[in-house]
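re the bet — no i am not wrong, look at it urself. input seq straight from the record:
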Amino acid sequence: MNVGDGLVANDATTLEQLLAPLPVDRLGFPAQVATAFNRMGLRQLRQLRVLPRDSVARRFPAGVLHHLDTLLGRRSLALDFYTPVDVFDARIELNFEVESHQALLFPLRRLTSDLAAYLAGRDSGVQRFTLYLEHRNTPDTRVQVGLLSAERDPGMLFELTRGRLEHQQLPATVLAVRLVARELPLFTPQHHTLFDERAQQTQPWEQLRERLRARLGDDALHGLGARADHRPERTWTSTPTDTLLPASGPRPGWLLADPQPLHEASLRILCGPERIESGWWDGADIRRDYYVVETRTGQRGWAFRTVGDSGPLLLHGWFA
């Protein structure tokens, strides 16, 4: 601990010796406490050090003994960790009235970079935030940016906000830009391979998904969900997010809208039949025997024949 001009204390005993002649007024006590000590004839720290602790505790607040122990090295000086605020709220006032989206990109990039730095300091991500465009005599324009998962990459946050902003019509010139983020969930970094030879040509699916949603709209992308129906053309449905389909027999990744007859003579049946009978309750019942087939070029398909029909197999889908 440094004391005075160039004086260094390496242990508690040396520290007490160096601090002993210091006046009470310079020890950091509250003014009323320092005045009380002076009226008692206690002018230096060496005089306070020999006082009975019980007597000091009765006459003065508890913080006096705590502060005295801290000065003499008997108690460690605990400092509170810095805790960032729970809401990110940043605003940039523009030097002139902006009429185009292009002129807003520079302050937008700065705001999203500040947001990413704030999130990194909190070790969290952001899933929803709002961009406010302030006008002179018109209510603020609100641009809502929502993500399917927490992110904090500055480039991605900028591109997503830019995509949303480009679809926004400006009712008036913009005087200031403000970004507010209140939902700050925990962020789990993605795992990457140790050796990525061409990282500049790859992009995680989560980032690509969010970029497409920002460019095309929230309803432009859909996942696949399962429907409680055994008929292949009705067993799936579109969902807002990706969901896992239930396990079943071999199913093709590409299902044809209209089954096509297979007239190839060298067609080879790999497995089957798998009979599917369903739909009797709505008048669109089916009775089919499905086979996994392979063409002479090695393509694998999913074909069926209606039960009781002796015609050619009908191709219903291709396997990847």
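see?? The radius of gyration is 37 Å. told u. also The longest strand covers residues 88-98. so pay up
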